[in-house]
Design brief:
By secondary structure, the protein is mainly alpha-helical. It contains 14 helices and five strands. Helix content is about 60%, strand content about 5%.
C-alpha cells in the first residue's frame, strides 16, 4: 500500500529554478490584483477567450475533438451534443463553469473530487462510471517507432484507490494548514500524486486539469481565468508527459522526485502571467487592432493561420483580425497561401 506523507517536504531543498519561478509568480499575482480593478473590460474579454481555449485544449490533449465551429456551438450552448466527443466537451464546459463560479465553496475532499468527475460525465449517453472510482486496473502506455504499445507506468490497483485519494486530500489540507512548504509546490505534488493514482476508468487527465484550476483559485492565483493553462499544457504536451514520467520514477516506493513535474507546472503558470501582462500592456497603450496584430506577429516566425492569431489576440473581434490581416497582406508583411480552410500566411515583417 502506497503511503503518502507530505510532511517530509517541510525541510526539502528545492532547486533555485523552482524558487525563482515561485518568486516571479508571486510578484505577478500582486500586480494582477491591481490590474483587475483598472482593466475590467479587457479582463472580461480575456475570460471568454480563456474559457474557450481551456475547454478545447484540455479535451484535445485526450484526443476529444470536433470542428472549431462545433466547439463554439457547444461551449456557448447554442447546440446540443451530436456524439460522444461533443458530450464530453459539454461536460468539461459545465464543470469548468462551476469551478470558475463556485471555487470557494468546493472543498478539497475525495467526495468533491467524485462530484467533479460525475459532472464531467453527466452529459455522456450510457455513462455508468462518472463519479465512481475505477473498477479495473489501468495503465499509462506509449508506443514505439514500430507502433507497438508498452507500459510507461502502472497506477495503483482499484482496491487501493479510494483510500489513496482520501489520503492525498488529507495530507494536502494538513500541509497547507501547517505551512509545510510553498502552497504552489504542494498543489503540484498533489496533482502528480493524483495522476499517478489514476483513480478513474476514464477522465483522469481532464479531472487533474480541472483540479489544478480549482486549487490555484483557492490559493488566490486567478490567472487561469484569463489565460488558459490547459491550452499551454496542450501546446507543450510532450514536455508535460516527460516531466510527469520523470517524477513517477520510484513513486510506488514513495521515493520519487516530484521536482520535474513541479518545475514544468510552475513554468506553465509563469508563462501565463507573462502573457497576461503583455496583453494588458497592449490594451493600455490604446493600440489599434492592426497594431495589436502586428505586435503579436513580431514574436512569431514562419507561417501562421487566422485561428492562431485569434488565440493570440483575444481582446479583438474576428472581423478586426481579418481586416488587419488583409492590410498586412496588402503591405507585403504577410504572404497568403492556400484557399478556404487551408489558408495560412507567411510572416514577412
Amino acid at each position: 500500500m502506497r503511503i503518502f506523507d507530505y510532511s517530509k517536504y517541510e525541510n526539502y531543498k528545492w532547486d533555485s529554478e523552482i524558487l525563482k519561478k515561485i518568486s516571479s509568480i508571486y510578484n505577478n499575482k500582486g500586480r494582477l490584483e491591481v490590474l483587475l480593478l483598472q482593466n475590467s473590460l479587457t479582463f472580461n474579454k480575456l475570460t471568454e477567450s480563456a474559457k474557450f481555449e481551456s475547454i478545447v485544449g484540455s479535451n484535445t490533449i485526450e484526443g476529444i475533438i470536433t470542428t472549431t465551429h462545433r466547439f463554439k456551438q457547444i461551449i456557448n450552448e447554442k447546440s446540443t451534443p451530436k456524439n460522444r466527443s461533443e458530450e464530453e466537451i459539454s461536460g468539461y464546459r459545465d464543470t469548468l463553469n462551476i469551478i470558475n463560479e463556485s471555487y470557494e465553496y468546493i472543498e478539497i475532499t475525495s467526495n468533491y473530487i467524485l462530484q467533479i468527475h460525475n459532472i464531467l460525465y453527466k452529459n455522456v449517453s450510457g455513462n455508468s462510471f462518472g463519479g465512481k472510482y475505477k473498477n479495473v486496473q489501468n495503465y499509462i502506455s506509449a508506443s514505439n517507432e514500430k507502433g507497438e504499445m508498452y507500459t510507461l507506468f502502472t497506477p495503483l490497483d482499484p482496491f487501493e484507490t479510494p483510500k489513496a485519494v482520501e489520503d492525498i486530500c488529507n495530507e494536502y489540507n494538513e500541509a497547507i494548514k501547517k505551512g509545510i512548504t510553498n502552497p504552489l509546490i504542494l498543489t503540484f505534488i498533489f496533482i502528480q500524486d493524483f495522476l499517478s493514482i489514476h483513480p478513474f476508468n476514464d477522465g483522469n487527465g481532464r479531472t487533474s486539469r480541472l483540479l489544478t484550476n480549482l486549487f490555484l483559485y483557492k490559493l488566490g492565483y486567478f490567472v487561469g481565468k484569463y489565460i488558459s493553462l490547459e491550452n499551454k499544457i496542450a501546446d507543450s504536451k510532450d514536455s508535460y508527459y516527460d516531466a510527469l514520467c520523470d517524477s513517477q520514477k520510484d513513486w510506488h516506493l514513495g521515493n520519487n522526485n516530484p521536482t520535474p513535474f513541479i518545475n514544468y507546472m510552475l513554468g506553465i503558470l509563469a508563462e501565463a502571467y507573462d502573457d497576461l501582462e503583455e496583453k494588458i500592456q497592449m490594451s493600455n497603450l490604446n493600440m489599434s487592432a492592426y497594431e495589436i496584430v502586428k505586435q503579436s506577429l513580431s514574436s512569431k516566425i514562419g507561417k501562421i493561420t487566422k485561428s492562431e492569431l485569434v488565440k493570440m489576440c483575444p481582446t479583438l473581434s474576428t472581423s478586426s483580425i481579418e481586416k488587419s490581416i488583409k492590410q498586412l497582406v496588402g503591405e507585403g508583411k504577410l504572404e497568403k497561401h492556400g484557399k478556404g480552410k487551408n489558408t495560412f500566411y507567411v510572416i514577412k515583417l
